[in-house]
């Protein structure tokens, strides 16, 4: 790691900001709105609206629509991923894991970092998928709630288990049976994400933080608390704090959680709701404590000793970013071979050592230890049994629930 | 009948000889206009029609959206989000006034006093455009951070006590308050104010100032009676170029603001991308456009200038 210079933003910080705005998980860019309003209105609301007076319904073909699989003839794979979400060789700027994959299988991976935001990416590919067209991508990575929506809408293809022996054998128990894709028929996790509480020791100045309740109530933290714009993380963490289970809750439970956070918003306790850019608020000390993503914390801690994290007694939220094969993809088998490749312990360890998120591959520890001992012992990268037992997932929502909940949650964030 | 059958021959003989060159000449301007018109149709007219259509549709993502002429969307959107509308107008107006107060003296300086420094100062005005809008806004997060020297100084001078009493800031911080958002807007749109002002001022004949002096006008009177009225086109176009994008901006509110500083741009963004309520998002866009159009029309009428810039 490079040395931390207080005047200049640290590399992790720059990376986070770049990821966030060019951008990150919940990024907002001027371009994104422009693209959304011009491209989106034109394509989504648009063409259909003028000709057929309406936006076509999403297709509901179970199992997805496959195209002719050209995998045998065309040894290529179009892989779309988030920025800075794969190993990079500092010198050559190439991706060693993908190079090794190409060497072994002869499949050249066309790797594109064009997923900046789940919502935005969905807006981009939805018209093509709804119209039954090839998106030009064979493998995409989406956070589980969007993966659930894609499966529900019939936009992705069922995977062939016979091509996925390693994936089937090595997937961690923690990620085996999400309620939106039981048995992993459509998706395999790329990386897992732990949602925890992060703090800045200097800014906290001795104030004790142990739980989400402290964030919401402690008057000493007024205006210095950050929450995430990702609904499932902010609501889920608060729900756990209130003793409710995010895996099975009712509308009333949801409303109660919203009311609890609303009270804190009204008091001015919460400074703002953020995407990935919370990292800069946290390192500057504008946030004394906030809800945060584990992978970011590993990177921030490497550069800023003031950053710490804790897992509340009530537990923490986990989610995953999942590999999916969209409808009409031309190289499905190639995609499946890549999925399987990343479930072999060595490539998985290489990936985990670089990206610092939770590895979904069981028994990767000895391999990771060979590359980076600290990473192998970091529970944010490889949760131990005790920690994994405290992890919770957010239950799958119906479209109606999702709209209603997002509506309520966005009101909480001011709009 | 006979006249009809007789008439064609002379026409037919004359037409091929005379008409083509004339027609070509007459159509040339239209051909030249074509790229512009096409551009306007594809990137302005069509999206507008689509948006209008979307705003009167109902449905959901799974069932699709159909035009049902559900105009209540407009009313519901306005009833629900009028605070954000009002806030957008207020913030944009505040930023515009600040831009004018900051920009006018600078434009005046560049136009009349800068001499050989003129080009350098112009470059300094335009220089921020060489970096991304987002990076510039992010820089303000560092400048206004809670532990930054700026905020520290303002606290020491008790300026923030005053602004907090007015509701512009909260406690001893500037970030995540209305003041920060307005500052961000002002900073980001300042060049749009300075450039038209400069063009207007630069065109004023220096001899008019001398003439005013000869007629015993003091400098202030010269400014009030000669310079300012002549710069009105710049003032009007500068305020429009600042106010209109500022009212629809959402980046500043997103990065520098808090939950109670969200502007209408943020609402539209959320509705469109997060909640996937396309009709409401489209309706909000139209309301914003109509509101701005009405305000601008009124403003141009009252300001009484014919030409902008």
From TrEMBL, chain A:
Keywords: Periplasm, Signal, Transport
GO CC aspect terms: periplasmic space
GO biological process: polyamine transport
Protein name as it appears in the record: ABC transporter substrate-binding protein
Broad class of where this protein is predominantly found: periplasm
PANTHER family for the chain: SPERMIDINE/PUTRESCINE-BINDING PERIPLASMIC PROTEIN, SPERMIDINE_PUTRESCINE-BINDING PERIPLASMIC PROTEIN
The keyword Signal is assigned to this record: yes
From TrEMBL, chain B:
PROSITE patterns, sorted: ABC_TM1
Broad class of the protein's primary localization: membrane
Topology class, membrane: Multi-pass membrane protein
ABC transmembrane type-1 domain location: 85-299
Gene3D superfamilies named in the record: MetI-like
A GO BP annotation: transmembrane transport
GO cellular component, one term: plasma membrane
Top-level taxon in the UniProt lineage: Bacteria
Keyword Transcription among record annotations: no
InterPro entries tied to this protein: MetI-like (IPR000515), MetI-like_sf (IPR035906)
Ranges in a coiled coil: none
Cell location: Cell membrane
SUPFAM superfamilies: MetI-like (SSF161098)
Keyword terms of this UniProt record: Cell membrane, Membrane, Transmembrane, Transmembrane helix, Transport
TM annotation in the entry: 30-50, 89-112, 119-139, 175-198, 226-247, 281-300
Membrane found in the keyword field: yes
Region (Disordered): 1-22
Pfam families named among the record's database cross-references: BPD_transp_1 (PF00528)
Family the UniProt entry places it in: Belongs to the binding-protein-dependent transport system permease family. CysTW subfamily.
Official protein name in the record: ABC transporter permease
Organism of provenance: Streptomyces spiralis
């Amino acid at each position: 790691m490079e040395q931390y210079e207080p005047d200049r933003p640290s590399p992790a910080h720059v990376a986070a900001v770049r990821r966030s705005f060019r951008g990150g998980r919940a990024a907002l860019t001027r371009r994104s709105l422009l693209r959304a309003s011009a491209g989106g209105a034109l394509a989504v609301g648009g063409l259909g609206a003028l000709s057929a007076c309406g936006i076509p319904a999403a297709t509901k073909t179970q199992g997805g629509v496959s195209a002719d699989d050209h995998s045998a003839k065309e040894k290529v794979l179009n892989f779309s991923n988030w920025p800075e979400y794969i190993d990079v060789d500092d010198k050559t700027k190439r991706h060693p894991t993908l190079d090794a994959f190409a060497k072994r299988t002869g499949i050249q991976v066309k790797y594109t970092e064009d997923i900046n935001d789940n919502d935005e990416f969905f807006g981009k590919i939805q018209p093509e998928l709804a119209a039954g067209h090839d998106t030009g991508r064979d493998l995409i990575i989406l956070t589980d709630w969007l993966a659930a929506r894609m499966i529900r809408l019939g936009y992705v293809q069922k995977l062939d288990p016979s091509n996925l022996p390693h994936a089937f054998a090595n997937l961690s128990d923690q990620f085996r049976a999400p309620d939106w894709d039981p048995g992993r028929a459509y998706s395999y996790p790329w990386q897992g994400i732990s949602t925890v509480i992060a703090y800045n020791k200097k800014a906290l100045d001795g104030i004790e933080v142990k739980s989400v309740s402290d964030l919401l109530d402690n008057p000493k933290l007024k205006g210095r608390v950050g929450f995430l714009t990702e609904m499932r993380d902010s609501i889920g963490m608060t729900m756990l704090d209130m003793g409710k289970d995010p895996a099975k809750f009712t509308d009333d439970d949801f409303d109660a959680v919203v009311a609890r956070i609303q009270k804190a918003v009204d008091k001015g306790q919460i400074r703002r709701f953020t995407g990935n850019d919370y990292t800069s608020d946290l390192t500057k000390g504008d946030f004394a404590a906030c809800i945060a993503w584990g992978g970011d914390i590993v990177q921030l801690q490497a550069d800023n000793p003031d950053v710490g994290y804790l897992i509340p007694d009530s537990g923490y939220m986990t989610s995953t970013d999942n590999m999916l094969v969209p409808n009409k993809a031309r190289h499905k088998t190639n995609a499946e071979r890549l999925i399987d490749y990343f479930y072999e312990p060595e490539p998985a360890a290489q990936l985990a050592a670089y990206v610092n998120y939770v590895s979904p591959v069981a028994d990767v520890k000895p391999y990771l230890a060979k590359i980076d001992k600290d990473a192998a012992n970091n529970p944010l990268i490889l949760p131990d049994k005790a920690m994994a037992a405290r992890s919770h997932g957010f239950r799958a929502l119906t479209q109606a629930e999702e709209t209603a909940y997002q509506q309520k949650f966005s009101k909480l964030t001011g709009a | 009948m006979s006249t009809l059958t007789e008439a064609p021959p002379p026409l037919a003989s004359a037409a091929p000889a005379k008409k083509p060159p004339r027609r070509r000449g007459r159509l040339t301007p239209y051909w030249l206009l074509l790229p512009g018109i096409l551009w306007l149709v594809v990137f302005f007219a069509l999206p507008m029609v689509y948006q209008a259509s979307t705003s009167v549709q109902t449905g959901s993502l799974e069932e699709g959206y159909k035009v049902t002429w559900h105009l209540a969307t407009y009313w519901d959107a306005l009833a629900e989000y009028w605070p954000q509308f009002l806030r957008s107008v207020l913030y944009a107006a505040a930023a515009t006034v600040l831009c004018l107060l900051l920009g006018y003296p600078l434009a005046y300086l560049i136009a009349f006093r800068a001499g050989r420094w003129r080009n350098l100062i112009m470059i300094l005005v335009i220089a921020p455009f060489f970096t991304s809008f987002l990076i510039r806004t992010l820089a303000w997060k560092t400048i206004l951070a809670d532990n930054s020297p700026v905020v520290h100084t303002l606290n020491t001078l008790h300026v923030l006590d005053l602004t907090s009493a007015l509701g512009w800031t909260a406690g001893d911080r500037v970030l995540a308050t209305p003041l920060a958002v307005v500052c961000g807007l002002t900073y980001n749109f300042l060049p749009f104010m300075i450039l038209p002002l400069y063009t207007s001022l630069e065109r004023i004949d220096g001899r008019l100032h001398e003439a005013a002096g000869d007629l015993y006008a003091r400098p202030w009177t010269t400014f009030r009676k000669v310079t300012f009225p002549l710069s009105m086109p710049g003032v009007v176009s500068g305020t429009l170029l600042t106010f209109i994008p500022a009212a629809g901006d959402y980046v500043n509110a997103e990065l520098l603001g808090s939950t109670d500083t969200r502007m209408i741009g943020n609402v539209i963004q959320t509705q469109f991308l997060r909640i996937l309520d396309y009709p409401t998002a489209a309706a909000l866009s139209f309301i914003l456009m109509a509101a701005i159009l009405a305000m601008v029309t009124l403003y141009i009428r009252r300001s009484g200038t014919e030409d902008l810039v």
